[in-house]
Amino acid sequence: MDERIIVKALELASIDASPEVVRQTTLFVDHLKKVNETVNLTAITDDESIGTRHLQDSWMLCPYIPKGSTLIDVGSGAGFPGLALKIVRSDLDVTLLDSVRKKTDFLESAVELLDIDHVCAIHGRAEELGRDHLYRDQFDVAVARAVTALPTLLELSLPLVRVC
Description:
The protein is an alpha/beta fold. Helix content is 45%, strand content 12%.
């Protein structure tokens, strides 16, 4: 991945382009592109589109997520927005949820490669986790991209979020 594209995406999202964030993002995207050659994780594969449609889009959420939040990414897929957010927000405790095993396998390998703490990938369905006492009412924030229509997404994700 061209690091200049990452730096540009960070700047457009008003995030400091520290060398460590750029390094981890490059490592993550390069791993994603390599795995995507054999496992269909995303249709977006060119650097420019990854920079704007995956990374920058994910990072635009940063100002709306309180410091130190527990976050669940429902339908995390290739790690957007959850893993991309974790790379720039080390203060977050992130759970990446996807119902497709090959995607959670990829997410686990990416987390291990990046050697980051307080992030886990779970193979499961939001409607099931919402009934599980280990996950129900446990998160400060739920995020998702391209999962389903908003009314359905709310039904799936709201049981996972703490009542204020």
